[in-house]
Amino acid sequence: MSDYLERRIDDKCDKIMREVTRISETQRGSDRRTAEAFNRIAAAIEGLTQEVRQLREDINPKALDKPKLPAPERGA
After folding, report:
1. Rounded Cα distance, 59 and 53, in Å
2. pTM greater than 0.90 (yes/no)
């Protein structure tokens, strides 16, 4: 193989490797942003879950439970 062809092949390989590296770095950045977004969503869901639990406790506090009345007698 001539030196010219070897240089062309090397140049093409270098160009392809640079492009692969660029794409890989872009993908890593995208993956990182996606993971951060999912973590923010999970934190928001957890916060909402706690808020709903507190609202349920406020709506139905144990101290205000009505006393249970006895069932009426049948046949009377």
Report:
1. 10
2. no
In terms of Cα–Cα distance, which of 45, 65, 42 is closest to 53? 45
Which mean pLDDT values do the consecutive 10-residue runs of the chain (76 residues) have?
88 95 93 95 96 87 69 75
CA dihedral sign, ordered 61, 62, 63, 64: positive
Complete DSSP assignment for 12-53 = HHHHHHHHHHHHHHHHHHHHHHHHHHHHHHHHHHHHHHHHHH
Which residue type sits at 36?
A: E
